[in-house]
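Input (RNA-binding transcriptional accessory protein):
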Amino acid sequence: MTNIQFISKSVNTESINIQNTVQLLQEDCTIPFISRYRKDKTGNLDEVQIEQIAKLQKDYEVIVKRKEAILKSIEEQNALTPELDKKIQQSFDLQELEDFYLPFKKKKKTKADVARENGLEPLAKIIMAQKNDDVDFIATKYLNENVINEDAALQGARDIIAEWINENIYVRKQLRRLFQRKAIITTKVVKTKKDDQDAQKFNQYFDWSESLTKVPSHRLLAMLRAENEGFIKFKVEVDIDEAYDIIDELVLKGQNPSTPHIQLAIEDSYKRLLNPAISNEALQEAKVKADANSIQVFANNLGQLLLAPPLGEKRILAIDPGFRSGCKVVCLDEKGDLLYNENIYPHAPQNETAMAMKKIRSMVNAYQIDAISIGNGTASRETEFFIKKIAFDKPVQVFIVSEAGASVYSASKIAREEFPNYDVTVRGSVSIGRRLSDPLAELVKIDPKAIGVGQYQHDVDQTKLKEELDNTVIRCVNSVGININTASKHLLSYVSGIGEKLAENIVQYRSENGPFEDRKQLKKVPRLGEKAYQQGAAFIRISNAKNPLDNSAVHPEAYGIVEKMAKDLKISVNDLIANKEKTSLIKPENYITSEIGLLTLKDIIKELEKPGLDPRKSAKVFEFDPNVKTIKDLRTGMILSGIVNNITNFGCFVDIGLKESGLVHISQLKAGFVSDVNEVVKLHQHVQVKVTEVDEDRKRIQLTMVV
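Output:
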C-alpha cells in the first residue's frame, strides 16, 4: 500500500489532491500557505484536512519504519517464513503488526520458556493436535530430573499452550472486538482514602460502573486522575464466559482426551495473559479517544479566545483590581506601550475612594484615554461599580476582561524582556489592557494551558496537546494576518514560514532600519531566504505601503496578475482596490496561469474588494446585573446576563459577574437534544441565563439557557 492509498482511506478527496498536498508538505510548505495559496493543487482542502493529511503521512512513515524493524528482528532469529513476510508486508495496522511480532519479541523468561527448556514442547504439540491420544500416558515419557511426575509434565505443556493461545492473532482480534463492544469500567474507592478530604471531589466514582465505549471523555479522565491520586481502583472487564466461548471456538476441535487440558490452558491464558493485555489496550484506546476529545475542546476554546473581538488601536487605562493591595493602574498608548502606572486604593481597608476617583479622572484626561479595561479577578465588580461612578469629561467605554494567565505572563521571561524595569503587578496590568486592544497579539505570549479554557488539560497526552494548540495558534494568527511594524517577536514567530529565530531577526532589522516600507524589504532580513519569503510574505501587512497590495492578503507572486487586471480595466491598482464596481467586471478565467488557477483567482478578487479585512468582529461593551455582587445575592429563578468563559463536553460555564462561574449543563443549553455544546454557544458569547440552583457551601451555581 502506498502512502497515498493509506491516507485516502481516511480523507475524502481525490488521490491527486492528497498527492499534491503531500508533495507540498515535503517541499517544506506550511499548512496556512498551502490552504490559502495552493487551493488549485489541493482541490480547496482546508487547514484541518491538510493537518489530517500531514498527520496520516507521519503515521504511515511510523508504520513503515516499525515494519522494517520487525522484519529485521525476525530475520535475525532465522524465523521469517515467506508466508509471515507477506502478512507483515501487507499489514498497515500497528496493533496487528505487534501481534505478528509477539512470538518473536524478546521478553523475560516465561513459564512456557521453562517448560520448553524441560523438553515439554513436543507434549504440548501432541495435546494441541487434539487426537484421541492417551495424553496422561504419553506425559510419562517426558519425565526427567526437572519434571518429576505426569502432573508436572502436563502443567508445563499447558503453560506452552497458554502462550500459544495468547500469541494467536485471531484470538487477540476477536477478544479486542469483544472489549470494544462490551467492556465495562468499574471503580471502587480505596477504603483507607474514603474519608480523605481531597477524595470527596471524586465521590461519584467510589462505586461506579458503565460501558467503556460510552463513558464521556471528561468522566474517563476524572476516573484516571482519581486512580492516579490513589483514591480509587478500577477494572476494565467483559463477561468471562463470553471470552472463553470465543477462545473455545477458535482453539477447540470437539471433545477428545486433550480437551480438558486445553480448556485449563485457555482459562490460564485468558486470566494471566490475554485479559490483562487486552483490557489495558482497551483502556489505552479509550484514553486516546478521551484525550483527542478533550484536546479538541481545548483547541476550539483557544481558537475562539484568540479570535475574540479586538477594540483596536485605542488608548487604554487598564486596572488589575484588588482589595488590601489596592488596584494597579496602567495607561497604554494606541500601540500598547506603557505610558504611566500607579496604585489606587478605592476599596477596604483603605477606602481612599475620593482620592482614587480624582487620580483616575486625571489619568483619563492626561493620557487621552478611550477605554478602560478591568481584570475579572478579585474585586472586579467592586472596581467596575467604582469606575462607573466617576463623571468623565468625555465618553469612556468600560470593559471587563478575562485575566486568566495574566499572572503567568507577568512572571515569564517574555514579560521580563518587555518590561525589565517593572514588577509583576505592572506587567500583569499591561497584559489586561493589551488583551482588550488585541487579544490575539497578547495571548500568544502565554502558554495556552495557563489560559484555563478546557477540561482536564493536565491529564491528556501533553505532546499531542502542545501540537494541537500550536496548530490552533498558527491557524488563528495567519487567518488574521499581522502588522509587521507593530508585531512582537512572539506574534511574528507564528507567521507561516517565520519561526522564532527569523522573528528575532525581523524585530532586530526593524529596530535598526526603521519600519518596513514594502514586503520585498523582508528579503533583506538576515537568514530570511526565498522559501521563508514565499511562505510568509502574504500573511504580513504593511499599512501605508508604497504598493497597496502589501496591506492585503494577495500573495506577491500574484501581483503581476492584479496589475494586468487593472491594466485591462484601464485603471491603476490603487483605483481597483476596494472598488466593487470594477472588481465585479473581472472574469477570473481570463487570468489562469500554470501556477495560479481559478480558485486562487476568485480569492484574489474577493480580497481586492475588501483588502486586509480583519475576520474578527468588534469588541462590545457588556454589563452584569448591578444587584448581584456575591453568591448570597442569587435567587432561584433570577434572569441574568452572562458571558460564556469556558466550554466543555458536558456544558459551558458562564461568568455572571461573581468570583464563581455558573454551569449550564448540555441538557439546559436549549430545548431539545444537543450533541455538541459548540453548536449552541461560543467562548465570550453574551447570553441570558436563569438561576436554577445555588449551593453556597460548595460555591456551585446551576444555570439554564432555556428561559
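The chain is about 45% helix and 10% strand.
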